[in-house]
Amino acid sequence: MIKSNQGCSGFLLVDKPSGITSSKLVQVIKKTFSLNKIGHTGTLDPLATGLMVLCVGQATKFSQFLLVKDKSYRVSIKLGVATDTFDAEGVVTSEKSVSHVTRELVEVSLTSFQGEIQQTPPMYSAIKKNGVPLYKMAGRGLRVDLESRRVMVHEIELLEFDGEFVDLK
Description:
Layout (H helix, E strand, L loop, with lengths): L1 E3 L2 E10 L5 H11 L5 E3 L9 E7 L6 H5 L7 E4 L2 E3 L8 E4 L7 H8 L4 E5 L8 E2 L2 E2 H6 L9 E5 L4 E4 L3 E4 L1
Antiparallel strand pairs: 1-2, 2-4, 3-4, 5-13, 6-7, 8-11, 9-10, 12-13
């Protein structure tokens, strides 16, 4: 962090905990450290944990360039269970046996998600429509038509497979 007569400027790396929105985390840090200008370089869903890069003061001018940079994610997926929110917090809507799923089957399936793909975001995500996060709309029972968007997946690495859970990077 650099301090000048215009206040602090620089980048702040924060480990976002589960259960808080990215926006709320930014507001808490802004208030706690009495910062005037602060922004982030990408939103994480409320359930997600991980590194958030915050831009403070003059560094907020760089956030637009960092938003479009490649990012890396880790995820743990429970096989055979579907929820109404597509995440672990949702109500289970169906369960199926996964006894036939092998590590080799998972590895082959992952290849179809690599490269340039079209992805339609779920309603329970931090993506905004008309300035409102989709998860807020979904929480109020609203549904909106969502257009798919181009996503580039450079690599998917299978970290762990135990027959019930798949951990990916």
